[in-house]
Amino acid sequence: MREYLLTLCVTVAVTYLLTGPVRKFAIAAGAMPAIRARDVHREPTPRLGGIAMFGGLCAGLLVADHLQNLNGVFELSNEPRALLSGAALIWLVGVLDDKFEIDALIKLGAQMIAAGVMVIQGLTILWIPVPFIGTVALTQWQGNLLTVALVVITINAVNFVDGLDGLAAGMVCIASGAFFLYGYRIWFGYGIESAAPATLFAAILMGMCLGFLPHNMHPARIFMGDSGSMLIGLVLAASTISITGQVDPDAMALFAGGERNATHAMLPVFIPLLLPLTITAIPVADLVLAVVRRTWKGQSPFAADRGHLHHRLLELGHSHSRAVLIMYFWSGLIAFGTVGYSVHSTSMWIVLAIAALSAVGLILLLLPRFTPRAPRWAEGLVPPRYRHAARAAEAAAEAAAQDATGTEPTPARPVAVGVSGVNGATAVGPRSRFPDRRKAESAR
Fold first, then answer.
1. Is 331 exposed, middle or buried (0-12, 13-18, 19+ CB in 10 A)?
2. Furthest-apart CA pair in the chain: how many Å?
3. Of 7, 112, 57, nearest to 235 (Cα)?
């Protein structure tokens, strides 16, 4: 575990330290596209954050290669090299897209090529466990096609959910954390060395997201862009493919008897293996809904719109930060709930806890205007709007304004200082195009 923690810390540090210079480079290179109709942010923000994340990936792999207990992953398996090759290709395409806006079909072809590069080097699905049947060995073509499909789906799912500050990085970090716990349990709990690459990939992916999040939380100073979203989507897909298609379920040998009985009895343990997309359930659900919605309207599945799940949360009245936290909550509930159930499937407390937390999540969805208050001992750890003192001061200021004017206070409007126009009128800024009606009436 210490080697994993060291790899994680190095990845976090390198990603964090590189993001600042990368931001300056993105501004100098002009990778700050104009605000589009579907965007939520109000000011042009630099992209190319994936450059720093790719640097963190390379640093994590380099450190792990020189650690005593992790260098065996590089000696006994070609999967790290396959991951690095595919990641470099998809990262390069993402950097070009952040700067020059590549066509969606070209990006889709690049994603398939990157997946094919990993397949050629051995990162592919060899078999899958099927309930009531047992372990089914796949032919070469079946395994290759399934691997490419899984990579493309995961990349686009993460790319689609990257619509709010800190959303994609946080959700992928939660998913990789849950997957790391499961892979670590398979490797050290059952002594299966085939799970070592997936565990390493998940730890590095966590470091990439954690190092980038401080720069990407609302209000974001830099976006990861397609160079980052496609990169972390590919690394997450590589982790799921490695542990799904490379780990032989029969090697766990938890139950005696025939193969069918063993597979059926081990079904709770196989849940993350059979359904690796449960780790990214929210992004995949958003992807499926987007494709169905756009196809139903006669649009291209790659056409951008404002119908994603995070856009719906904003339309319900949730703030930017709360919408992100709600998505975090559901991602963590599904990911860690699935892993927890796979460990203790016979415990009713796991099911009851998941049901109770689901009810809490539904209540939060239905209360967009509710503002929680942090306890006084934790006020220093939360934003000012959740502190008692700040809210009390705000209420006192509003009351004083009411007493002074005799009317309810109105929010101040930004007015730009301009040149004098006709009849002494002052030109106003873009946010206040029209003069005050009351002044016009008094002038008459």
1. buried
2. 95
3. 57
**Which helix (H) or strand (E) segment is 82 a member of?**
helix 79-100
Q: Reduced to 3 states, what is the DSSP secondary structure of residue 219?
A: coil
Does the pTM surpass 0.90? The reply is no
User: What 8-state DSSP symbol labels residue 386?
Assistant: G
Query: Residues for the chain: how many in total?
Result: 444
Q: What is the share, in percent, of the chain residues with pLDDT greater than 90?
A: 25
Residues pairing with 344 in the sheet: none
Cβ burial, residue 34 (10 Å; 0-12/13-18/19+): exposed
User: Quick one: pLDDT at residue 242?
Assistant: 84
Which run of H or E residues covers position 114?
Answer: helix 104-120
CB 300, CB 294: distance < 8 Å: yes
Beta bridge partners of 135: 129
**Cα within 13 Å of Cα(304), Cβ side:** 11
Could you tell me what percentage of the chain is helix, strand and coil, using 3-state DSSP and rounding each to the nearest 5?
A: 70, 0, 30
Positions in the chain whose pLDDT score sits under 70 = 34-42, 129-135, 245-284, 286, 300-318, 320, 344-347, 366, 368-375, 377-444
First to last CA, the chain: 78
Burial class (CB in 10 A: 0-12, 13-18, 19+), 416: exposed
The amino acid at 57: L
- Tell me the residue ranges of DSSP E strands in 126-258: 127-130, 134-137
Measured CA distances, 40 to 220, 305, 315, 374 (Å): 11, 12, 12, 27
Q: Would you say 344 and 198 are in contact if contact means Cβ atoms under 8 Å apart?
A: no
- Letter for the amino acid at 227? S
- Angle, alpha carbons 14-16-20 (nearest 5°): 110
In a 3-state reduction of DSSP, which class is residue 128? Answer: strand
Among residues 53, 17, 104, the alpha carbon closest in space to that of 303 is found at 104
Q: How far is Cα 281 from Cα 286, in angstroms, rounded to an integer?
A: 9
